[in-house]
Amino acid sequence: MENLQEIQTRIETNIDAASDLAALDEVRVAALGKKGEVSLIMRTLGGMTPEQRTEFGPKLNALKNQLNQAVATRRETLEVQALNARLASEVIDVTLPATAMPTGSIHPVSQVFAEAAVIFGDMGFTVAEGPDIETDFYNFTALNFPPKHPARDMHDTFFFEPDADGTRKLLRTHTSPVQIRTLQAAVQAAKKTGTALEPIRIIAPGRTYRCDSDQTHTPMFHQVEGLVIDRETHMGHLKGCLADFVSAFFETPVKTRFRPHHFPFTEPSAEMDIGYERVGDEIRIGQGDKWMEILGCGMVHPNVLRSVGVDPDVYQGFAFGMGVDRLAMLKYGIPDLRDFFASDQNWLAHYGFSPLSQPNLSTGLSS
Amino acid sequence: MKFTVSWLKQHLDTDATLDEIVDAMTMAGLEVEAVENPAEKLAAFTVGKVLSAEQHPDADRLRVCRVETFEGEKQIVCGAPNARAGIWIAFAPVGAYVPGIDVTLKAAKIRGVESFGMMCSAKELEMGEDHDGIIELSGDDLAVGQLVSDALELNDPVIDFEVTPNRPDWLGVNSIARDLAAAGLGTLIEQLITPVPGQFACTQDVIIEDETACPAFAGRMIRGVKNGPSPQWVQTRLRAIGLRPISALVDVTNLLSYDCDRPLHVYDLAKVKGPIRVRLGGKNQSFEALDDKTYSIGSEMCVIADDSGAIGLGGVMGGASTGVSETTTDVFIECALFDPQRTMQTGRDTNITSDARYRFERGVDSGFVLDGMEIATQLVLDWCGGEPSEIVLAGEIPAGPKAVDFDLSQVKRLTGLELTAQQIAKILTPLGFDCGDAKNDRMRVGVPSWRRDVLAAPDLVEEVARIVGYDQLPAVSLTREPGVLPPAPSTLQTRARLLRYGLANAGFAECITWSFCERSHARAFGGGADVLMLANPISSELDCMRPSALIHLLLAAQRNADRGQTHLQLFELGPVYRGDQPEDQLLCAAGILSGQPERHWQGSQTPDVFTAKAAAMAGLAAAGAKVDALQTFTDTSAYWHPGRSGALRLGPKNTLAEFGELHPATLKALGVDGPIYGFEIWPAAIPAARNAKTTRTALPVHDLMPLTRDFAFVVSDDISAEAVRRAARGADKNLISQALVFDLYSGKGIEPGHKSLAIEVTLQPKDHTLTDTEIEAVSTKIIDKVQSATSGVLRG
Prior knowledge:
The structure holds two protein chains of two kinds. Chain A is of the alpha+beta class. Chain A has two domains: 86 residues; 244 residues, Bira Bifunctional Protein, Domain 2 (BirA Bifunctional Protein, domain 2, 2-Layer Sandwich), CATH 3.30.930. In chain A, 41% of the residues lie in helices and 20% in strands. In chain A, strands 1, 4, 5, 6, 7, 8, 9 and 10 form an eight-stranded mixed beta sheet that branches. In chain A, strands 2-3 form a two-stranded antiparallel sheet. In chain A, a hairpin with a 2-residue loop joins strand 7 and strand 8. Chain B folds into six domains: 68 residues, Phenylalanyl-tRNA Synthetase, Chain B, domain 1; 112 residues, CATH 2.40.50.140; 190 residues, Phenylalanyl-tRNA Synthetase, Chain B, domain 3, CATH 3.50.40.10; 69 residues, Phenylalanyl-tRNA Synthetase, Chain B, domain 1, CATH 3.30.56.10; 195 residues, 2-Layer Sandwich (BirA Bifunctional Protein, domain 2); 88 residues, Ferrodoxin-fold anticodon-binding domain (Alpha-Beta Plaits), CATH 3.30.70. In chain B, helix 14 packs across helix 17 and helix 19 runs antiparallel to helix 20. The model of chain B has no long low-confidence stretch (mean pLDDT 93). Classes of the chains: A alpha+beta, B alpha+beta. Chains A and B meet through helix 5, strand 1, helix 7, strand 4 and helix 9 of A and helix 8, helix 11, helix 13, helix 14 and strand 29 of B.
């Protein structure tokens, strides 16, 4: 009978010779399986004397362990070889183009509307809306435009054909009719509950229309209206609110200047300018020494409050309106207004925003 | 409104620089639009003198001149007929930019003769249209090398600013000066108006027949005038603001229009027949105005007439028949008030724009009628001589504006400014307000006749704030009330937002297109009603409110395709209009898919009905609709392909979306090439969530593995896949968690007119592993249910 050393050497040779996992398993079973050579020898231990067992037991166990170790080592080697072989056969050309994933975009006007809603939302404003097709009352009369006043002419209003009663509807020339609709609703609500008028803070984004079309005017454009009504808001709040807005909106400290102006629906009235400078073709909003008009505003005219049954001796507040398309052009460096409405694929892809970058104050407006 | 700095300084004593003037105007509400100094444009041009002018050897019309210039003697070839020895000219040296012809001069050879520079015409210097000859300068102190702008007295900066409708008085330089003085820029130079005594009774009668159209009409004769050119300074001043000097008598009226916002008219008395009547127009009348055009007179127009008929349109324009000329000797000056609204309407109807109309339709100072007459009289006497009559006044000068009982606390209430009564009075008085004594925080404030815009306290508050300066108002941040939650958007606003971002996320580019479209296009989408037609559209292509946002997207698809951009996924979330009432305006998301995507080695998904359906469902899902519960119907709007479109509804009536291929006839009506697929989503149709709470229902957790079984049913072609799927899905509501259509087959092995639909059903055991018998029982139920619902049979 071979001695254990010889057995070990022979089996280890076989293990090292196994060329794949199946062959290795055969060798393992032949040696260590239930009826394997080593297992059979281990069985003979039962018939041995205690002295023999003391001598052979540890040797046999050592043999078994070493063979198991050898099998494991070989298995690992063979597995690595097998994996390498598989990987070698699985090479593909990863320079081939990626699988197409659709990408869409958000229009810059929607982006600016969303940014305005976030900034004003933080100051407690809700978003109100109103119809595009308006009556003379909401667009002009309630806003203190005297009948046949030149200020109406300046609005280049789109009219519809007269109704049977001779009145004609129009396309709103500004978002200011939403002021009236909001005030009316608030008055109704107060009447219903028999309470005082709730303070109002709204912005009204929307489409507006004037029959004007050239390089810098389109017959449809966008505004954001704002209205604050309570018992103590004054022009100082107006200045603070709008100055805070422009700096937040442009994401940089912006100088502001308020100038007297005239609007029928505010008194006192103002226009707000923001500082900028021109560097080459670029307009940089913020600290430059040039001024650019950005919005109109003022304290709500008592006649506007009266037109909806609100007592101007008790309630007061301010209103403002600004052109959204222009804000988008200035902030995002978009050169031509007319392109906003042309739906050109390249323009939309270039100036549009990722749907994943929804504006918010904690992580950024336009990230 | 344009004026020059020297003109302003006639009314305002100030050392302010141009920049300071512009700044003060801006901060006082006079929004400066442009400042132009003509001297800057003419800096390169100097006075020269022609020493000799000889015939060009090779050109009949050219002359070779020797000209004395600041650079010494120059040879200049010139084509002007008036180029001759001895005249003073405007010399442009080589290298000068000549604005009127947009050329930078170079030394040149003209028909073989060298020429160094140019002698300029008025047009070449952009000083007028005259191009018949070169400018001939005149004057006593001309010198070679002197600036042409100095020689022509064109060194006075011109300021152009916007006159807001509330301040018609700013159409006179005197009022501008008053505001600037009040704002601290200098001292107002009070105009001394000395009445000119009449030397005889006025024999020209004036009768006002309609006092609403013309409340007051002052008139005065001046006999024995000699009309000629007005003084040089007047001509320079008028030219500087773009007016053409005509004659002394006409220039008086133009000067006063701008100087003190006082339009006037001067009649040649010899041509006026009988009394002047101010009345409303009648029928079939016409009128030849001073612009040599004939206008027909409407019955609501204010007419100035004599026995011959109309000789003027009140407040708008005088007539040709009674206009003054060089031979005029006796004149009648009109200084009147005309109703603003009627003046505006007359101006609109006749399409006449005049300085008089511009002023009367905004309102002219009623308190200045007689003063204006006296100033005009004095100027006529100074420039033309003559003998004035007494003044006749028809009608009545209207009372001035009402005084305001000014509650001084309004200043603080509306602006946050803390000012004493004294400070307020000190601000208002220089503006012409008459401030009484303050008592109990109230002050009676008399309003000057030129400030009819001031009616109540807020108007005075604006005056105070404006003069103090808006920059002095405290800026106070507006913060949310403590403890008040951030505002919550409405359900529809939230849906719209999610829909917008959902569609963009699904690969669609958001567009914003016109709310109006061409009527024929609107009709192709079921719109185009009369009430939605614009009376004054910008063009016939945009004359009707749109019934669908698809219209402009489809037109955009064609425009993009024409530029080589064929594969498009566009959407718009915006209004569509069913009528002219507020509730007729609906929010809709429309989208289109067209063209072949870029070629891709893995193949690419060509748009079809099912990609359109997927987009519609993605949008609805994003907006919060329960997409699983939607049923697909086949009856859709007429602009969709009748066999390739569907409506996604909850119940038979509530349509949340439509999708499909656009009807070929619809595309043809729009001139768009197909096929194009699209969808329309109606976010307002999505039912409100029954549970408004933020908490979700608990997630059902199953420890047991779900298992799937496949079935293939043969059904008639007219049975919808959805009917089969729903039947299978509904066979056992307890066990079946899902049913998917995974194959559609027709052809060999399937009876003609039939199709085979393969469906995978997922069973979710709840509390024990299903036995074979139980699975068998469910299978039978599915087969039976499909058979009873659709007559489908299990494919053998």
